[in-house]
Each structure stands twice: as structure tokens, then as C-alpha cells.
Design brief:
By secondary structure, the chain is of the alpha/beta class. Helices cover about 30% and strands about 15% of the residues. The radius of gyration is 17 Å and the shape is globular.
Length: about 260
């Protein structure tokens, strides 16, 4: 599994800050492209931790717990290209339209984010140009450089949210491509009949999403956003289990989408 990242000039990021994206297996000709928009929890040093206590960055509001680890293992198993976002969704959410209020949230699941309060348009623009735009340019480049047929986004969700218990083990989100989501769900049911699987649960693809509409629907790729409940992803054994389940399902999907 190969990995690389490129430095982009920016008025926001310093030389000692992480790059605005990471690519794994960038030279792979695989028909599958994987993305993980909420893999990381880095904060540019200029933003002074967004005014948050360190323990906040261990919470689901900062990143999708375990999703990056699963995505890397799936990329390794499939030898497929993967684009990961190292920066926290609290800095800028790379799966939201940049004009959306929650693209740079002032509060998240009841937690106030002081460094996001009353931002100027220039401050918002710096984050878009430094992090959001290079991340999505990289996804576009990977899709366009080879014959890609399939786009899969890997996320995780928390069991309890806004006082509600969300008991699905995994969910498949879709809007324009229900068949792909249903195919993947059926593959997982075959591999583990005990799984509780949600269709468009706990989230559905809608106007608040960015990656699947922009890159999947826009190019008419087979696509799905996969949400794994994050209490399954608290250790390496959980990461391996879910990576094995997903890589088998995605490999079967890709084989059916391959040109004859």
C-alpha cells in the first residue's frame, strides 16, 4: 500500500501543519475510488485549537471514529486508491457545500466551537482554499486519471445522538443510486446475517452532502456512502472485521461493474 501527500501553498497552513489531503494507492488502476472525508482531527496551528479542550478532539464531533482505519484496510485489501482528509470536520467539513452553515459549525452536538464563532468571509475562504478545494481536486483527479466505475465513501456514526438510540450496525446512504446501496447491503447480510442494516439510516444523501453528489452522481458512477456505528470501531479487531466485510462486498460489486 503506497501513500503520498502534496503540500499546497496557503495563507492558512504553515509548513509544520499536515497536508490538506492524503492519497493511498494513488497509482492503482482499480475501478474503485474510496474517500474518507472525516478521517482526521488535525487543526491548523494558526487556529489555536479552535478554542477547544484537547479531549473534545477525541469525540465523534471532531472526526469519524475508526473510519480512517477501516478505509485504509479496505484500500489495502482492494489495492484501490483512497483519499483521506487529515483535518477535523470542525475546521471545515469536506462533505458539506462550503456555503452551508454546518460546513464550519459554531456548535456541534451541543458543543460550542469558539474558534468558529462570527467568522468573516475571508476567514471562511481561507479554510475552503487551504483544505476543501485541494481535497476535492484530488478526488476528481483520481477519478479522471483511470477508468473508475465506483465511488465509496466510508464514515462512522455515534450510537446516541440528540437523545436517540441508533441501533443499526451499519447504514447505506443513497439518493440517485439505490441499486448499489442495496447490493452492498445484501452482500453484508450474506456475510453476517446478524447485522442490523439501515437503508438511508441514520443519514440519507441530500443537498447537505457534497462528495457523493459532486463526484458520484455527477459522473454517474456506482456509489454509496457507508456509515458504520462507531462503537464497533474502538479497536484494531473491530477495524479489521469491518474492513473484511466491506472489502468483500465492494470487490464483488466492482467485479460486476467491470467492462466485459
Amino acid at each position: 500500500m503506497t501513500s503520498y501527500a502534496m503540500r499546497h501553498d496557503s495563507s492558512l497552513l504553515r509548513n509544520d501543519d499536515p497536508q490538506p489531503f492524503e492519497v493511498v494507492n494513488g497509482d492503482s488502476p482499480s475501478p474503485v475510488v474510496l474517500v474518507c472525508e472525516h478521517a482526521g482531527r488535525a487543526i491548523p496551528s494558526d487556529l489555536e485549537h479552535l478554542g477547544l479542550a484537547p479531549q473534545i478532539m477525541d469525540m465523534h464531533i471532531a472526526y469519524d471514529i475508526g473510519a480512517g482505519n477501516v478505509a485504509r484496510l479496505v484500500a489495502d485489501a482492494l489495492d484501490a486508491p483512497l483519499v483521506l482528509q487529515p483535518y477535523s470536520r470542525l475546521v471545515i467539513d469536506c462533505n458539506r457545500p462550503v456555503e452551508a452553515a454546518d460546513a464550519i459549525p459554531e456548535t456541534s452536538d451541543g458543543v460550542v466551537v469558539p474558534g468558529n464563532r462570527n467568522l468573516s468571509q475571508d476567514s471562511r475562504k481561507r479554510r475552503v482554499e487551504a483544505i476543501f478545494e485541494p481535497f476535492h481536486r484530488t478526488i476528481s483527479d483520481l477519478i479522471e486519471k483511470s477508468h473508475r466505475t465506483t465511488l465509496i465513501a466510508i464514515h462512522s456514526f455515534t450510537r446516541q445522538f440528540s437523545g436517540l438510540q441508533r441501533l443499526w450496525d451499519v447504514g447505506f446512504a443513497f439518493r440517485a443510486d439505490r441499486p448499489t446501496a442495496e447490493f452492498l447491503a445484501n452482500q453484508l447480510r450474506h456475510r453476517d446475517p446478524s447485522l442490523v442494516i439501515g437503508m438511508n439510516e441514520p443519514y440519507a444523501i441530500d443537498a447537505s452532502d457534497w462528495s457523493i453528489p459532486a463526484h458520484g452522481e455527477g459522473r454517474q458512477l456506482a456509489h454509496s456512502l457507508i456509515e458504520i456505528r462507531n462503537d464497533h470501531l474502538r479497536d484494531a479487531a473491530g477495524h479489521r472485521r469491518w474492513a473484511n466485510l466491506l472489502s468483500g462486498a465492494i470487490e464483488e460489486l466492482a467485479s460486476r461493474k467491470a467492462p466485459s
